[in-house]
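tool_call predict_complex ligand=zinc ion
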Amino acid sequence: PATYDVVAAQDRWRKVWDDLNPFEAADDGSRERRYALTMFPYPSGDLHMGHAEVMALHDVIARYWWQRGYDVLNPIGWDSFGLPAENAAIRRDEHPATYTYANIETQAESFRRYGMSFDWSRRLHTSDPEYYRWTQWLFLRFRERGLAYRRSSPVNWCPNDQTVLANEQVVGGMCDRCGAEVTKRELTQWYFKVTDYAQRLLDDMEGLKATWPERVLAMQRNWIGRSEGAHVDFEIEPAGEEPGRTVTVFTTRPDTLYGATFFVVAADAKLAGEICAPEQREAFEAYLAQVRKETDIDRLSSEREKTGVFLGRYAVNPVNGERIPVWAADYVLADYGTGAVMAVPAHDQRDLDFAKAFDLPVRRVVDTGEENPEETFVATAGDGVYVNSDDLDGLTDKASGIAQIVGRLEGEGRGKGAVNFRLRDWLLSRQRFWGCPIPIIHCPTCGEVPVPDDQLPVVLPDLRGADLKPKGTSPLAAAEEWVDVDCPSCGGPAKRDSDTMDTFVDSSWYFLRYCSPDYTEGPFDPEAVRRWMPAHQYVGGVEHAILHLLYSRFFTKVLHDMGMVDFEEPFQALLNQGQVINQGKAMSKSLGNGVNLGDMIDQYGVDAVRLTMVFAGPPEDDIDWADMSPSGSLKFLQRAWRLSGDVTSEPGTPYDGGDVTLRKATHRTLREVEHLVDSHRFNVVVARVMELVNVTRKAIDSGCGPTDPAVREAVEAVAILLSLVAPYTAEEMWSRLGHEPTVAKAGWPTVDEALLVQDSVTAVVQVQGKLRAKLEVGPDISEADLEAMALAEPVIQRALEGKTVRKVIVRAPKLVNIVAG
Ligand code: ANZ
Ligand code: ZN
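tool_result ok
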């Protein structure tokens, strides 16, 4: 039999598609719009198996929407600032742009070869001045609203990359880019005030419940980390020369206030140094030096021995006037809550471990019925009866305990109910070159002066190679010609801000820019955004579950408050694909289990690789390439392709008179695929197409024969269905069926409802071999269902009255024989 020449097909159709350019969004209102968004890539190297997977899955959705007649926006771009290009540039002694734009070309070519249905006319790169002009513009608008500000604080510092990192970029105490251990440094840095939006970021997840993976929502919820409790004011007693002062703590358990037996301040909080008594100073400083070297992970570990230093001061418990000692310790974090806690060892295990280590008193104030923590050194956290708690004594539940104590504190002006978030402001300054310059000028007279809008973009200077080596300050600081400017306000000598922005700033709004990529009046044309956004479907990796998605949601909310967009959530639905692994493990150089995408495509062709990715299983699951059979996929594509050569009726032949059984199979498949694509069960789509190919083959060889119009209908449907997954093969089939390209826009066949009606079959029900009833049932009824139906039939129940059923013989769908006696 003829074989399908995969390579020739790829060459042929690639050219035709380039000419036809079929996937440009019309954006003319003639059809309903759908926005299919895929997370844009970093241009580091060529595409790999992971890209191949996510793109194959994403394209099923976009291509399906095209077939359904929507006007689809399916854009592509590059997140092209960032460290990999900069590090490569240092190694190669060139400008980061050289490496970046070369990789972009390579990846773009690979996407085209892979047959992605992108709208190439909207392509963008975040490192283009035309793009980052607007990143800078947005930064200035955020700053005007008080949402971008500078402050000095201890920040995460990667000694290897010589740059600060956001909390989100520190994973397990390590830099998430290079794996080096992260340390702390005191630096003045720019922040976005994302904490102002904490509650809204949390609340608006309600509306995403049905369309975002629960695990992503859970990760965001946890990252935002909302806790309800109270702020309680403690007086620190004056001591010698040292004045007294009020220190507030955040607690989730104000009801345990009578059990507070000591007070702990984070050793690295300013407060600790300020209140430390002179005689404890030396011990405190030594301890602080040790704490500064620790990571937050160490500090929060419950396994570690508790450490700390007495500060020589006493705090006064606001409810009973009790004097309790003030300690500095590392298990309290400086940047959470207020950086100080009231320690209730009986009901908080961390406090109890600390009390044990330093022999501090433990007092139970809630009797939970468990053993007394004063004796067991196991803290109890549950509800119980309040004891040793004055007016609370006798209450039996947390809610009333908390309500009563908070009411009293509020009445006395010594505290109030409070909500605390784990979420921190987003640190956006980076001391690296290859990023978006921060459009601020520092003037000794005027202070921070924004670069006027009409002078944007602030373009990066031409630095390369050794100029870019990390030195702890941004390489831009050393570029004198660039950094020294006249103050836009007073005209005096001033300096540009020499930091660049975290690349997550660039990616927090790119999906808006796609709607009008050439717009010059602003970051995006509000009308274009109104037409396309929010994106109907976002597809990408779960590694972006927190950072990118949270930041994009934050940006969208700010833009909403600025009146620039009229929605508050950017992505209506989210799909996270699994990973491509090999032999059960993530692919890596060190394991030597990497699979090269180019090799796979050379060996099996694009379509077989795409089909394998889609057929591998539910899109959310990992794909173990070792278990996959791209050669099996290729064989299937050959079989499908062969059908198109066997059809002998003319294109345009009406299907009406065709073989009804085959027509039914075709129409059922189409209807089922509609539901399957909508519910993202793409692997089952492939299975259904395989079934239809088999049925059609049988019809040709031993059924209605190749001339029957139903065969043409079935094969055309196969081509259209395959166009979602295997675009080259589908195009090849479509042309062999006598049609013009492109099959990608052939349009979804209209499903004939009449052909979906299930035929019914008559089943006979016998009792003791005697015909008692006839039932109309579906041809696919299961034995169990048929038996249940028979036994439920009133005539049969009457016939069985007073008898015991001994045996039921079922031959679905035709016969049930009941033996009773
Ligand atoms: C007294 C108390 C009694 C507490 C008790 C808990 C149980 P979440 O839920 O994570 O918000 N805390 C407050 N600030 C802290 C900081 N900077 N570093 C470490 N721990 C801190 O936890 C809030 C609880 O964590 C607070 O409530 C406080 O301990 C502690 F039976 O106050 B609690
Ligand atoms: Zn000035």
